[in-house]
Amino acid sequence: MSKKNNKYDVIIIGAGPSGVFTAYELNKISPEKKILIIEKGRSVHKRYCPIPKLNRCVKCKPYCHITTGFAGAGAFSDAKLSLYDTEVEEVLVGGNLPEVIGHKHTKDLIDYCDEIYLEFGGEKNIAGVEHKDEIKKIKNKAKSHDINLVDIPIRHLGTEKSRELYGKLEDYLIENGVEIIFQSPVKDLIIEDGQAVGVITESQNYYGEKIVVSVGRNGADFLSDLCDKHNITKSVGVVDIGVRFEMKSEGDIQKVNELMYEGKFIGEIAPFKDKVRTFCQNPDGFVAAEVYDSGISLANGHAYKEKKSVNTNFAILSSHKFTEPFNKPIEYAHKVAELTNLLSNGDVVVQRFGDILNGKRTWKKELENNSVEATLKTAMPGDITLGIPYRTMTNIVNFILEMDKVVKGFANPDNLLYGPEIKFYSNAIKLDENLETNIKNLHAIGDGAGLTRGLMMASCSGVYLARKLF
Predict the structure, then answer these.
(1) Phi, then psi, of 358 in degrees rounded to 5
(2) How far apart are the C-alpha atoms of 297 and 209, rounded to whole Å?
(3) Partners of residue 380 on adjacent β-strands
């Protein structure tokens, strides 16, 4: 195929929410533009995780279906869309996009993207907009223990509904002329005279007037390598290392579920005063395993609209920002994951909280007789403290003990910790107001670029960029 036939107005690397919404908005604004999305995974219609059927993770090759493919990890996530508190000027969650474009503009984008999600089948009900007085009581109680509760409206799609919604979006893009090439990993960029002009895949080269990198968290290490190779300016960002925490949906946590669906609790925990937070709460949900390209297995969580458990799970994450001379937080996090996986023959490790306090591992028989039933059946009972660093583990344990003062039952010795759970936000690509890097016509968006966190804000970054490209 000639270079002329391989020429596009825009090439988007990665079909996660940020890339999808870039293509959607650009196609709407300028339907004559020739848009190409290159995705290393499969169509959302062909993504399938065998764990529920086989009751074990087979580490699908060449890529994990949970993390890779159209819609990215969002297709298999619990799919919560974080909105914003209309009574607060700032957008409190979702990453750094508001700092780049302003909070008012970000709110407008959230409203716009929310309407798109509704148009394609999103849940109409919003959690967290009622019961403000009761929520305020929990917030004040948390504050008395130096923990901040961030409560914002949540639109919960559900894992199964998420795939259905993104399937409609995929069909829409294709029907409206957006070209999508699946199962074609991008190997490199084509840079000429300081300007991005194309991409290199395993089979051929493609050329574009604008190149957009929207690789998501799973592609964070790929983007980091591109930055090093092509001198794309970035800074050392924050890496979140922690666990997936599981407890029974009863008592105080059930009240949080009913009032807010997701409560975001944040504290600076002694003795290190690092930021520790809850993230991605799944009422009546299921802990899940996901495999990244390097082969590491990480914990995550899902929540369905129809299928329910008797447990609530969420991440407890400790944030770490490294200083000079160390500048490889993604590599550091990978090593933590590799070491923890090594303890369990490549699986996620699960341990009872009481066993951690007592300095012992959890055994299979103890897990089988535990009052909190593990929803991730493939997890290996063991000792996560042998893999997760002392500082991180100390932060997590102390956070759980403090949270028990706010949400009774949080420190139940039968509660379960699955490790590791890691969020790769560490690239922190330096971007201008057009989300352009120091390489001309090369733009970076979404979670993988360290710009956003979560489905809604990643989608907003795509819409914003589409409006700025031409």
Answers:
(1) -90, 0
(2) 37
(3) 349
- Other C-beta atoms lying within 10 Å of the C-beta of residue 365: 9
Picking from 250, 224, 189, the residue whose alpha carbon sits closest to that of residue 442 is 189
Among 84-93, 265-274, 451-460, name the one with the lowest average pLDDT: 84-93
Q: DSSP assignment of 124-191, as one string?
A: ---BSSS-HHHHHHHHHHHHTTTEEEE---EEE--HHHHHHHHHHHHHHHHHTT-EEE-S--EEEEEE
Residue type, 124: K
Q: Which DSSP helix (H) or strand (E) runs through 260?
A: helix 251-260
CA 318 and chain centroid, separation: 15
Angle at alpha carbon of residue 118, lines to 116 and 120, rounded to 5°? 75
> How far apart, in whole angstroms, are the C-alpha atoms of residue 459 and residue 437?
19
- Rounded-to-integer distance, Cα 447 and Cα 425, Å: 6
> 398 — alpha (psi -120 to 50), left (phi > 0) or beta?
alpha
- Report DSSP letters for 380-449, one per residue: EES-GGGTS-HHHHHHHHHHHHHHTTTSTTTT-TT-EEEEEEEE--TT-B---TT-B-SSBTEEE-SGGG
Q: How far apart are CA 342 and CA 335, in angstroms?
A: 10
Quick one: which of 438, 21, 431, 424 has its CA closest to 214? Answer: 21
Rounded Cα–Cα distance for residues 465 and 39 (Å): 19
H or E element, residue 312: strand 311-321
pTM above the 0.85 mark?
yes
Please count the helices (runs of H) and the strands (runs of E) in the chain: 13, 19
For residue range 93-130, list pLDDT tens digits in order. Answer: 898 999 999 999 999 999 999 999 999 998 888 887 78
Residue labelled with tokens 């009774």 = 408
The reported pLDDT for the residue numbered 380 is 96
Q: Percent of the chain scored above 90 by pLDDT?
A: 72
User: Is the pLDDT reported for residue 159 higher than 90?
Assistant: no
Nearest CA to 464 among 223, 178, 186, 104? 104
Which helix (H) or strand (E) segment holds residue 213: the answer is strand 205-213
Give the position of tokens 């920002």: 321
Give the angle 265-270-276 at the CA atoms, nearest 5°: 30
* Cα atoms found within 13 Å of the Cα of residue 176, Cβ hemisphere only: 19
